[in-house]
């Protein structure tokens, strides 16, 4: 029987959950390991919040809103992103070639890429101001998972590890383990109920909607109450979920139909304002675009 240890971190105004999985004999060891790694993840998330919060006058995002974009350049190159297989837009250099490098510069490049991939429906400008928060949380969770949790799986310290917060989760399982993650999709009309259970081993689930934060996304259509997207990387799952809410169901389906990578990998679950649910799976030609 699998032993699961979990800890909660409060950052970015939401709770984040760290989970480690092992066999029953590893329970005590997992407790020690998770107590060591959780503060490291917390420090990292607080660091990202300090840099990117639009609500803090001292953040780099607030500085950019005042016209100060110096955070795009760093005097000392830092470690480039560890995110594997990042899908760059045409002519967009990879992180390894963008030096000097800062997290702020990486997010700026990602939101520009997202705007291009989504035909402008993922827009880093909100109400006339720079606001990359639609991608920051998913990116931060993925980065923290890669930096702090994947090494535990690689070293055999645990069989599986996940980090999630605010409807977004990045999860992974060791090749030698038969463990599977079961991730519930929350009902936007009832926070104590789920509408779907997603099973995966390695991948990410992102959910975007208006039930908790209201109308925080610039929208060209209002025919979705919630969008959940499953992808390999949370950065992109988060981007596509935000795009679905922004663009609306039919436009989103059209964008996916025109993007071979997205069409082959994305699984989406939509909740319409009337409570009806629809979805399409990887490789499936989205409805009305056959």
Automatic annotation (TrEMBL):
GO terms for molecular function: metal ion binding; transferase activity. Residues 75-95 are annotated as: Disordered. The keyword Lipoprotein applies. It comes from the Bacteria. Keywords: FAD, Flavoprotein, Lipoprotein, Magnesium, Metal-binding, Transferase. It catalyses: L-threonyl-[protein] + FAD = FMN-L-threonyl-[protein] + AMP + H(+). The keyword Transferase applies. Pfam families: ApbE (PF02424). Residues 75-88 have a biased composition (Polar residues). This is FAD:protein FMN transferase. Its cofactor is Mg(2+). Its EC number is 2.7.1.180.
């Amino acid at each position: 029987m699998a032993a699961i240890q979990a800890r909660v971190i409060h950052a970015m105004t939401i709770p984040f959950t760290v989970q480690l999985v092992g066999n029953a004999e590893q329970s005590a060891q997992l407790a020690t390991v998770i107590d060591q790694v959780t503060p490291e993840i917390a420090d990292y998330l607080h660091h990202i919040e300090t840099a990117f919060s639009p609500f803090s006058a001292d953040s780099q995002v607030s500085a950019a809103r005042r016209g100060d974009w110096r955070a795009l350049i760093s005097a000392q190159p830092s470690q480039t992103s560890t995110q594997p297989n990042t899908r760059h837009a045409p002519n967009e250099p990879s992180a390894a070639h963008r030096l000097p490098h800062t997290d702020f510069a990486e997010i700026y490049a990602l939101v520009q890429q997202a705007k291009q991939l989504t035909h402008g429906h993922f827009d880093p400008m909100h109400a006339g101001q720079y606001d990359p928060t639609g991608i920051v949380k998913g990116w931060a969770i993925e980065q923290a998972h890669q930096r702090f949790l994947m090494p535990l799986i690689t070293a055999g310290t645990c069989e599986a590890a996940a980090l999630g917060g605010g409807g977004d989760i990045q999860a992974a399982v060791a090749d030698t383990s038969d463990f599977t993650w079961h991730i519930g999709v929350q009902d936007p009309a009832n926070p104590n109920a789920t509408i779907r259970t997603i099973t995966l081993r390695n991948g990410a689930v992102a959910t975007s909607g208006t039930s908790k934060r209201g109308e925080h996304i610039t929208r060209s259509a209002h025919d979705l109450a919630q969008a959940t997207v499953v992808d390999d990387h949370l950065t992109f799952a988060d981007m596509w979920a935000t795009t679905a809410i922004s663009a609306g169901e039919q436009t989103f389906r059209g964008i996916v139909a025109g993007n071979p990578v997205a069409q082959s990998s994305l699984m989406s679950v939509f909740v319409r304002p009337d409570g009806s649910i629809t979805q399409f799976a990887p490789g499936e030609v989205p409805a009305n675009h056959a």
